[in-house]
Amino acid sequence: MYLEKQEQLDRDYMPIIYKNIKKFRQTSGLSAMQAAELLDISYDYLRRIESNKDLTKSCSLKLLIKFSILFERPLDDFLKES
Question: What pTM value is reported for the model?
């Protein structure tokens, strides 16, 4: 049951979160390199998060909170489809 829920989350919500991370970064005017440095993650990892093609990526809640603070957005904004 748990694995089914996790697969549903990955399939339904994670692509929306990743898309919004990229959108909010671009709207903020930060380059991927600048954002990665401020978030204390590698540039390559941020590029993977923002990529639609990398299906093996993940984003922890801790990192999502960092994105929320950096982009001055509530966490629920990351779940909204645009």
Answer: 0.84
